Every structure is written in structure tokens, then in C-alpha cells.
Amino acid sequence: MCACRNKIRSLLKVTGLAAGVFSTYSVCRGDEKFYNNVFMPIVRLIPPETAHDLAVLGVKWKLFRPPYQDTDRLRTQLLGLTFSNPIGIAAGFDKHGEAVQGLQLIGFGFVEIGSVTPEPQPGNARPRIFRLNEDKAIVNRYGFNSEGHDVVYDRLRECREQQPPEERVALGINLGKNKLSLDAIADYVQGVKRFGKLADYLVINVSSPNTPGLRTMQSKSTLQTLLTEVLKARASLPANEQRPILLKLAPDLSEEDLREIVDVIRAKACAVDGLIVSNTTIDRPATLRSINAGQLGGLSGPPLKNRSTAMIARVYKLTEGKVPIIGVGGIFTGEDAFEKIEAGASAVQLYTSFIFHGPPVVPKIKRELDRMLQANGYASVQDAVGKGVDKYLS
């Protein structure tokens, strides 16, 4: 009897060890089926913010390395930079610049961190992020939780010094303002001056719905003053620290609002180098099924997809295709990315699909996008930009 029990125990140990080795290998190598059927359902049992923190930690430790070689067709020129592919990670995942190299290893063509505020601040009270599992969507109300300029600057400087320039992924730094700031414009000016040395591009984020009064900075007069001061700040820097500056827009703007913003950025004093379309929405489509649909905050994921694609097309038309656009909102497949590129985006960013499907979603989207570009006769991403703008305007 004892010998039998010992054999069973040994068998269980060997089986458990084998399962552990297989699981570890599948996670690190980005086995898509394993993630979708085993790993991510387990992750969704963990509270959302805890899961997010653990994900950032895992990426920071470079645990995830899905194998994929970017094709020449995916190589993208934007903002005077060359991306190995047009798929970036949106601000909001790596808020404090902890995992830039790990995100590069996963296969992102560019990485945007933040939002970063001048002074450290905790953000809004927890819980502040909610899964809408039935809709594959997320509602968050983080409220610019940030470790502040100094901590993030030192961390990013160390990160960049570890790699020669030719091996570094293109880095965007998304700038925010402190919740209790008495001079919001000064907060953004400070960010431009602080991070010009480290960033490849900078983002002025005045479109988060989770900081009181922030979206009012998209109004014409305030935006004119903000962009004028931000661009003056950039011009005051040494030439090798003057980085492209992009403006991130909310998806809830009216047609009149959009026209006013485009009028503002046409003026030389306010001429930003690009736009990010779009941030999360405060709208709640009637199609949402999750019990968390009523939570306050910004909604991201598939419910935002068509709205953001249509907005990209409208902005592309209004700017006559002269202002580069990075498209964000509900990209889960290569087809989703392709639609945004045909609508007018020169590159795209992921967030919610990465949260729901993990690292394998990145090579999956790149493979699918590459096939769609080829099938539609495009030799490069640039060839496809804006080619289908009219069909996405409705």
C-alpha cells in the first residue's frame, strides 16, 4: 500500500512539474491558444488593478518574448522616426516608465508611457478600473496616478543608457497635469522641458475624462494658449532636445469642436506635429452588456472602435491629410488596425486588447495587418494611409 502511495505521489510531482514547465514555456513564448484558453481566464480572476500591476512587473522582468520578425511591409516612417512596425502600446499601461525594454521585446514598434505629472500624486481612490468581460472592454478612472517627473526621468534615463541608440525602441512620453495644480499650462511646459532629452516624441494629454476640468483645455481659447506656450518651451531647448509634440483628443468632441481644434493647430504658433485619436469615451453605448457598464470613467475597447475610426477619418479630412495621426480605440485584430490606417492613421496603439489577450495579441495583429496590406496591394503602411477615408466618415 505504501509503495503504491509513493508511486502516486511521484507521478503527481512529475506531472505537476511537467505542467509547470509547459505553462512557463507557453507564457514566455506567447502561445496564443494557451493564453486565451488557460492563462488569461485565470488572470481575470484577479482584481483588475492587481492584475495590471503584475502584468507591468512581468513585462519589466522581460518574461514575455513572443517570436515574430517584422516584415519590410510593416516598417513605418512617422514624425521623422522609423518604426519597425506601426503597432504601439498606448499610454496608460506603463504609467511610470518601468517596462520600456520589455514592451520592445514583446514586439511593439513604439512605446508610449505615462501620463506623467510634475509632482507625484496617487490618482483617484480604488477601485478605479473595471473589466466589462462580456464586452471585452474596460472602464478606468485612474486620474493620472503618477510617480512624478523626477522619478520617471531618472528611471527612463537609466533605461535608455542601457542600450545604444540604434537598438532603442521609439519612446513617447505622455504628459499630464497635477490634479491640484494652480497653473495647468505650466505643468505641460515643465514636462516638455524636462523630457525633451529622453523622449522621441511628447504628448499633450488634455483629453482624459478622469481629471476634473481637464477636457475643458480642448476649448479653442485655452488650447491656443496652451499650445503656444508648449511650443515656445520646445523652441527654447537645444536643437537636439526639440522633440515632435502631439495632442491627444477625446472621442466625445462634436464636429464643431473638431473644426475649432483643427483651426487652432493650423496657426503657426500652435502647429503641433501630430494628433492621437482618441482617448477613452464617457459615452455608454446601449449595446453594453456588462454589469460594470455604469461605472464612472473612460470606456475603452471594442465599443469605442467605430467611433474612434470615424473620428480619425474626420480629422484626416479636416487636416487634408497633412497632420500625422496615431489611431487608438478598440484594436483587437489586424483588420481593426487596417481600418484605422485606411481611415487616415499613420500608426496605431493598443491597450484593451493587450489587457484581455496578453502579449500574443501583438504578433497576431502584426501578422494579420501584414496579410491585409498585401492582399489589398499596398507595399507599405504609408501607401494605405487615408486610402479609405470616405467609407469611414459616416
From TrEMBL:
It comes from the Eukaryota. The lineage of its organism: Eukaryota, Metazoa, Ecdysozoa, Arthropoda, Hexapoda. Belongs to the dihydroorotate dehydrogenase family. Type 2 subfamily. It is a single-pass membrane protein. Its main location: mitochondrion. One of its GO terms (molecular function) is dihydroorotate dehydrogenase (quinone) activity. It comes from Anopheles christyi. It is found in: Mitochondrion inner membrane. This is Dihydroorotate dehydrogenase (quinone), mitochondrial. It holds the Pfam family DHO_dh. Its cofactor is FMN. NCBIfam families: PRK05286.1-2, PRK05286.2-5, pyrD_sub2. Residues 74-373 form the Dihydroorotate dehydrogenase catalytic domain. Keywords: Flavoprotein, FMN, Membrane, Mitochondrion, Mitochondrion inner membrane, Oxidoreductase, Transit peptide, Transmembrane, Transmembrane helix. It catalyses: (S)-dihydroorotate + a quinone = orotate + a quinol. GO terms for biological process: 'de novo' pyrimidine nucleobase biosynthetic process; 'de novo' UMP biosynthetic process. Its EC number is 1.3.5.2.
